[in-house]
Amino acid sequence: MQRFTRLFSRRRRYEDISVSIGEHIEERIDELTEAGMSRAQAEQTVRREFGNVTLLRERSREVWQWQRFESLLVDLKHVCRRLGRSPGFAITVLLTLAIGIGANTAVFSVLNSVLLRPLPYPEPQQLVSLHLNAPGAAGLSEFRSELRLSASMYFTFATHNRSFQSLGVWGPGTASITGIAKPEQVDTAWVSGGVLETLNVPALTGQWLTPADQDPHALGRVMLSYGYWQRRFGGDPSVVGRTISVDSRPRVIAGVMPRGFKVVNYDFDLLAPMGLDPVKEPLAGFAYRGIARLRPGVSIPQANADVASLINVWMDSWTNGPGSDPHFYLTWKITPALLPLKETVVGSIQAVLWVVMGTIGVVMLIACTNVANLLLVRADGRQQELAVRSALGAGRWRIARELLLESVTLGLLGGASGVAVAFAALRLLTRIGLAELPRMSEISLDGWSIAFTIILSVLSGLFLGAIPALRYVPARLRLTSPGTMRTASVSRERQRGRNLLVVAQVAMALVLLISAVLMIRTFSAMRNVDPGFSDPASLQVMRISIPETLVHDPQTVTRIQNSIQDKLAAIPGVFSSGFVASVPMSGAEPAWNEISIEGKNYEGEGPPLRLFNYVSPGYFHTAGTKIVAGRDFAWAEVYSLRPVGMVSESLARELWGSAGAAIGKRFREWPSMPWYEVIGVVQDVRENGVDQISPATVYWPSMMHDLYGPGSFDARRTVYFAMRTNRAGTQSLINEIQQAVWSVNSNLPVSDISTMQDIYSESMARTSFTLVMLAIAGTMALALGIIGIYGVIAYTVSQRTREIGIRLALGAQKGELKWMFVRSALIMTAVGVVIGTGAAAALMQSMKSLLFGISPLDPLTFVAVPFILAAAAALASYLPARRAAGVDPVEALRAE
Fold it and tell me: Which of 269, 429, 578, 763 would be 618's cystine partner, CB 3.0–4.6 Å?
């Protein structure tokens, strides 16, 4: 502390020293004058006795100086003064570093918020996701990456496990809210007991759901999300205890969850109890997501072994009904594969973010090499000055320190500007949004992001300053005459460092360009895939749910849906309409089960599992899905429960050899159901995205027999309506849609209103995000590479002006001079291309999971991109080469 006090009071102390020295000199002069000397002789004698006054002052000041710090401040003042005299150089470097550091900070902020930051739950490392694998379930892997839990599994695991503090299951869904304002359908997280206890986040106001709320015969309370509480109730705390109508049932609001709370990765409006009944639950019904909190000291492998031991307990304790074999599921080879909950939240975006982070990091390296070249040129221009300072006694470290201080100062200033760039980039990202980017609301510039920026700025500064510092240390400096400095041509040694940096730039730029071109070709390949529907921009979709508590009879449900379909078709500008249980790429939970074909014996093996969908007559025509054989459903068949069905083309080929051969064949889902006749075969539909295979699919009527035996039937209660119209996406159409629905039933809310184009684009969001980031990085890399080549050739020309003049005076042709410089650039580019091609080939092998319809070693890309880069390098070098050829020999030699 005393050091800092001395530091800030040094000016007063320095003045006191000067005054004291002056007073001492004057006193001695007065003494000698009184002794008989003349004043001039006395002054001369005193100064001879006193010695070097300036040296004495400096030595006296050293008592109060923090020498290293003050020396650093002096160097910093010189650096700032030098940068102020070269504003063009300073602005160029700062802009380059600001863009590079800002882009890296923005991507790191996303990476940190999504991947590195712990989940916002207490002790998140204890949370696991209950995943199950079923490698023996034929066909499951074609449309599902895992086997979900059934309700009976949940009860078995919750009762008998020894590894978990708590365990629960949940599922996303919707609920209709009526009686508050206009009918509204909200996103609902349906949770069992144990879910809130597992996540362990207290309610903001009110209380959690209790085990009593899970009783299927009880009233069952609900909870609100913070966002819905603010949006619908204005944040009124008295809402707790209020009764609202949820799916036409009265529900009491138990509490409100805090801001930002999600059930795993699901952003809900309403939290509602599942109300599972252990008496009625079968073995099957694999539809629930499971989460659990590990006991202290229990590892995931130990928990896997514990759950594996309970699979037999589950099969011994439950049944699928009379005559079923509970141990049939042994053929599925069900095994637990628990994952940390964070991996479930992050999902497949993890690989994309690391690729983007690496890509932007390469751009930063290219930017740094460009700036390093600028600093080399700047240091080269100061070579005489540095040699003079070395001759006057400046040490190796002192000169190196000043060069490093200049580059670190530029790095820190560039980092400060980069924070503003990163903030703007994150604002743009959150405004544009990315459907597949989890934890979007948590992305921010936090302390870790600022620390990353500071570290990156300092490291960049050290890297930038190290090259000229190592090159121009005193041991390598020699004093030369000014004339020699003006007339010397650039030696190979002086040029080699800059050339190596350009080669590195070209190699890194080639890697990014190949990555970007492959992603562009991937995107193009995906756009050319037939998704199984046509003209998505003219296809308006919406979702309507009719809860059993509102309309109990399945046939009445179907008639309401039929009436809505007719009303929608009557809207001006709507050409046709239909409905389906799940539109392609919507992410809705798929239905699936076994499919048996007539005449085939499945003893010793189970029938294959296939995807189900439920459609109305007219839906395929509306969606633009082609019927390749047979015909569509008819409403008379739906109402009469005639056992007819349709299949996808791939399923028809799999089961009967061809689409035409499938017509008239029969199949069924369950032995208690009648045989269903195939009346139509439709083209394959990319249900899960254009980059995923089209699953073999069965299309059932929207109302049909169910698996509980003859006489029982059911209807799909949540369906998506589709309308083919040239008014898709307009607010006027949306208003007319709502009025048409309410004219049939005023209690039915309309939700998920969008065009099929929106859904289609959202399904390609991950590829689009990767493409945009790589395209931006590739463009920046190409621009920086061209600038680097241009800068090196231009500087070479300026340094070799005398040599060029002599060559021209001796008869050299201008074309030869141009080719000399262009050839130099092409040689550097060729070396960079060779290195970059090898690096790109290795990188693309690790990125092949992001590609679609294109080889990671695509020959066209690996030939075209180096050619384009070489052409750009030739153009960049031609401009200074042409200037060199235009040098007047007389003027060049006269200037020397």
Answer: 578
